[in-house]
Write a structure and sequence with these properties.
Helices cover about 45% and strands about 15% of the residues. It has about 450 residues and is α/β, with parallel strands linked by helices. Strand 4, helix 8 and strand 5 form a beta-alpha-beta unit.
C-alpha cells in the first residue's frame, strides 16, 4: 500500500512538472518585466552551458538558499564551516535575482553563485554530475524531490539546516505523504529551529531531527551599516522615525492611509518594501495617499522639510534602516503572509511591532513578545496608535530596546551547533555509495 501511494505521489508530482514546463520561460519573461535578473542566466536554470561550477573542483561545500532571507541566514553557518574547513571550496545556489545579488555581496570574494536548476530529474542528475559536491546544505525547508533523489543516487550527504515548518506548510506537504516521507528519509540530518519544527518534520518522515536553534540570531549587525544608519539619523534632524521594514503587497496602502490620518507632521515614516520590483508601485501608493516623499536612492544630504515619507528603495541596507529608526514595524504580518524576520531589529536594540500574521516566524515572535522586546498589533490603525505611543515615550522605547538586545543575545549559538553536525560529513570522503531507494 505504501509503495502504491509513493508511485501515485511521484506520478502526480512528475505530471505537475510536465504541465508546468511550457510555462517556465513565460514566467521568467513575466517576472523579468519588473526585475531584469529573471531574464539572465537561463542556462544555469537548465544546468546548461558554461557556468562557474564548471571551473570548480569536485568536493565543494554546496549551500542552497532560495532567496535573500535564507542567504543571509546562512552567513554565520558559512563563517563557522569555513573557519573549520578553510580549504573546501564553496558553491551557493539560489532561485531569485535578489538572492543571487545577496550571495555575491556577502560571499563573492570566496564563493561561486549560480541558480539552482528547476526540479526535473534529468536537470538534477546533470547538476550533480557537474558539481560532485562533498555535502549539500538546504536552508530552511527546501524539499525538492528530484534534487534529493539525485543527491542520494550520487552519494551526496544532505543536511536540512535552520529547518522550519509551519502548521500550514506541514498540511501542504501532507497532501503527498509518501513522497514527502521518501524525501525526508533521504536527508541525512535535519537541524530544526525549534522543538515544534522538529516534531512536525518527524511526523512527516524525518528520521534524524536535531533542535539547534535559529541561525538568524547569530547574524551580527554589521558595524559599517550601524554607522551609516546613525549618520542618516543625524541628517534627518529631530524627526521621530517609524520604520516599516520588509512590507508586502496589500500592507502599504492601509499603513499610508493610517499614517496620513493620525501621524503628527514631524513624524517621518521610512517605508522599505520587501521586494525591489515593487519600489515604483509603492512610490505610486505614497503619492496616492497625498504624502510628500523622497527616495533613498536619490537622497543626498538632509531631508526636504516637507517630506513625510522616505521610500527605502535600496538593497542590503536593512540594518542601517534599523539603526536610523526609533520604532520598527516588521512587514509581511498585517496581511496573511507569515511575517518576516524580527530578530535583526531586536539585535539593534529597537522596539518591534508585528501584525497578527507571523506563522513563518511564530516561535521567534512569541519569544520576543514574552521578553518584552515586541508588541503585536491588530491592523494598520492599531499599528500607528502603538507606534505613536512609543515615539512619545522614550523610557518605554529604551526598555523594549534593551529587552531586544538581551533577547537576541540569549538565543545565539545555532551556527556552532549546526556546524558541529556538518563538520564530520565534510571531513569524510565525498561521494560515498548508497543503496538506491524506490522512486
Amino acid at each position: 500500500m505504501l509503495k502504491l501511494r509513493l508511485i501515485l505521489d511521484w506520478t502526480l508530482y512528475r505530471l505537475a512538472l510536465l504541465l508546468a514546463a511550457p510555462l517556465i520561460p513565460l514566467r521568467l519573461l513575466w517576472r523579468g518585466r519588473r526585475e531584469r535578473g529573471y531574464r539572465e542566466h537561463w542556462g544555469e536554470r537548465l544546468a546548461l552551458g558554461p557556468a562557474p561550477i564548471s571551473e570548480m573542483e569536485p568536493g565543494a561545500l554546496w549551500i542552497h538558499a532560495v532567496s535573500v532571507g535564507e542567504m543571509r541566514a546562512a552567513q554565520p553557518l558559512i563563517d563557522a564551516l569555513r573557519a573549520a574547513h578553510p580549504d573546501v571550496p564553496v558553491l551557493l545556489t539560489c532561485m531569485t535575482p535578489t538572492g543571487r545579488a545577496t550571495a555575491e555581496a556577502l560571499y563573492g570574494d570566496f564563493a561561486r553563485t549560480v541558480y539552482l536548476p528547476y526540479d526535473y530529474a534529468w536537470l538534477m542528475r546533470r547538476f550533480m554530475r557537474r558539481l560532485q559536491p562533498r555535502v549539500g546544505i538546504l536552508m530552511e525547508t527546501e524539499l525538492w524531490p528530484n534534487l534529493i533523489h539525485a543527491a542520494a543516487r550520487a552519494g551526496v550527504p544532505l543536511v536540512l539546516a535552520n529547518a522550519r515548518l509551519s502548521e500550514r506548510s506541514a498540511r501542504g506537504y501532507a497532501r503527498l505523504p509518501a513522497l514527502t516521507r521518501a524525501c525526508l528519509a533521504r536527508v541525512d540530518v535535519v537541524a530544526a529551529q525549534t522543538e515544534a519544527d522538529a516534531a512536525r518534520l518527524e511526523k512527516l518522515g524525518a528520521t534524524s531531527a536535531h533542535v539547534t536553534g535559529n541561525l538568524k540570531f547569530d547574524i551580527a549587525p554589521p558595524p559599517d551599516l550601524l554607522e551609516r544608519g546613525a549618520a542618516w539619523k543625524a541628517k534627518w534632524g529631530q524627526h521621530p522615525v517609524l520604520l516599516a521594514a520588509s512590507t508586502r503587497e496589500g500592507e502599504e496602502a492601509p499603513l499610508l492611509r493610517a499614517f496620513a490620518e493620525t501621524a503628527p507632521v514631524d513624524v517621518l515614516l521610512v517605508l522599505v518594501p520587501r521586494h525591489p520590483q515593487r519600489f515604483d508601485e509603492v512610490a505610486d501608493l505614497i503619492e496616492a495617499a497625498g504624502l510628500a516623499y523622497q527616495r533613498r536612492s536619490t537622497l543626498d544630504g538632509e531631508l526636504d522639510p516637507q517630506t513625510r515619507v522616505l521610500l527605502g528603495d535600496s538593497l542590503g541596507e536593512l540594518f542601517a534602516y534599523y539603526a536610523a529608526c526609533d520604532v520598527a514595524f516588521i512587514g509581511g504580518s498585517l496581511a496573511p503572509l507569515g511575517g518576516q524576520n524580527l530578530i535583526e531589529a531586536a539585535s539593534v536594540g529597537r522596539p518591534v511591532l508585528v501584525g497578527p500574521h507571523t506563522f513563518n516566524f511564530e516561535e521567534a515572535t512569541r519569544m520576543a513578545i514574552d521578553a518584552g522586546a515586541a508588541l503585536r498589533v491588530d491592523d494598520a490603525v492599531d499599528l500607528l496608535a502603538n507606534a505613536l505611543k512609543l515615539l512619545n515615550d522614550a523610557p518605554a522605547r529604551a526598555r523594549m530596546g534593551e529587552a531586544g538586545l538581551a533577547f537576541a543575545a540569549r538565543h545565539r549559538g545555532a551556527a556552532a551547533r549546526v556546524a558541529g553536525i556538518i563538520s564530520p560529513l565534510l571531513a569524510s570522503d565525498a561521494g560515498r555509495a548508497r543503496p538506491d531507494q524506490p522512486g
